[in-house]
Amino acid sequence: MRLTPEQRAQYDRDGFLILTGFVETRSCDRLRARAEELVRAFDPGRVISIFSTKEQNRLSDDYFLNSGDKIRFFFEEDGFLPDGSLKHGKEGSVNKIGHALHDLDPVFSEFSRTPEIAQLIADLGIERPLLLQGMYIFKQPKIGGEVTCHQDSTFLYTEPAEIAGLWFALEDATLENGCLWAIPGGHKLGLKSRWVRSTEGGMKFEVFDSHPWPEGKLVPLEVSKGSLIILNGLQPHKSLANRSTKSRHAYTLHVIGGDCHYPDSNWLQRSADLPFRGFN
Ligand code: FE2
To answer: Rounded to the nearest whole angstrom, what is the distance from the C-alpha of residue 34 to the centroid of ligand 1?
Structure first.
C-alpha cells in the first residue's frame, strides 16, 4: 500500500491520517496474544512494591526512565487496592508495556519491520528512519486511565521535529472505550513544551507556550480494528478514560528521521550496546 498524493496532502494539512484496514485481523490477534503472553510471564512482585512503598515516586520514575531499552510493565493508576495489591490481577490491571518492544521481542520486531510500514515511512518523507519506541497499550475496561492532551514531540523531541507516531488499533476504538482525539491542523500550533532530564536528576517541563489547548477543536478518531492512525509528533491528541466493559488495545510505534539531532536530555535513552535501529 502506497500513500496517494491526496493522503499525503491530508496528513500535511491535518497532522494525522487514518488508514483503515492497514493491518490484517490475524496480525492484530497475534500481537494481542503475544502481549498477553508477556504479561502472563511477568512477575509483578517488585513493581507492585514500587507502586506501594513511600518511595514510589522516585522508584517508579527510575523504573520508567530506564525503560527506553527494556520491556517493562506499567499499571493503571486505578488498578490498585489500598493495600497495594492489584484489583483485577496483573492481566486486568496492566496499562502498558514499553518501551523497546519493537527491538527486544521477536513478534513485535517482525510486526514493526514489515515492508508496508517501511514504505509508509518513506512515503512520509522520513529518511534513514530509526525506530524509537514500541509500546503496547491496553486501555483496560472500567479502569483504563485518561491521557490528557499532549504532543509526542514533548516527550520524544528531535531537531528538526521529524517524528511520526504510528497507532495501530488492535481492537475497535470508539467513543465508548476511549478512542484517540486530535485537532485537525493542530500540528501547526508549534511545540508547547519539552519534558527534559534535569541536571538535579528526574524530569522537568520546559514550557514554550503556556496557553491551554483549544480542546473544543478536538475531534474523535473512531477507528475499526486493523486501522492505523499516523500522528505527526506535533499533533495535539488525547484519549478519555475507558469506563466501558470493552478494552481498547493498541500498539504504537514512533519513528524518527536518522539525520535529526536526538538530545541526551530526552527521557528515552538507549545503552551503547542497544542503539536505535531502522527497518533492517
Ligand atoms: Fe501520544
So the answer is: 23
Reduce the secondary structure of 11-28 to three states and give it as a string.
Answer: HHHHCEEEECCCCCHHHH
Give me ligand 1 centre to Cα 83, in Å: 31
Cα of 148 vs centre of ligand 1, distance in Å, is 9
What is this structure's pTM? 0.95
Sign of CA pseudo-dihedral 130, 194, 144, 71:
positive
Q: What radius of gyration do the chain's Cα atoms show?
A: 18
For residue 43, the SS3 value is coil
Q: How far is the CA of 113 from the centre of ligand 1 (A)?
A: 21
Q: H/E element holding 164?
A: strand 163-169
Interval between CA 199 and ligand 1 midpoint (Å): 25
Predicted confidence (pLDDT) per residue in 91-106, tens digit: 999 999 999 999 999 9
Between CA 228 and CA 95 the distance in angstroms is 20
How many Å apart are CA 140 and CA 192, to the nearest integer? 29
Q: How far is the CA of 151 from the centre of ligand 1 (A)?
A: 6
133 Cβ contact list (under 8 Å, min separation 6) = 68, 98, 99, 100, 102, 156, 252, 253, 254, 268
Surface-to-core class of residue 175, CB atoms within 10 Å of its CB (0-12 exposed, 13-18 middle, 19+ buried): exposed
For residue 107, the CA-to-ligand 1 centroid distance in Å is 23
What the block records as the C-alpha cell of 226 is 486493523
User: Cα(99) to centroid of ligand 1, in Å?
Assistant: 13
Q: What is the pLDDT of residues 140-158, one digit of tens each?
A: 999 999 999 999 999 999 9
Residue 109 C-alpha cell reads as 520486531
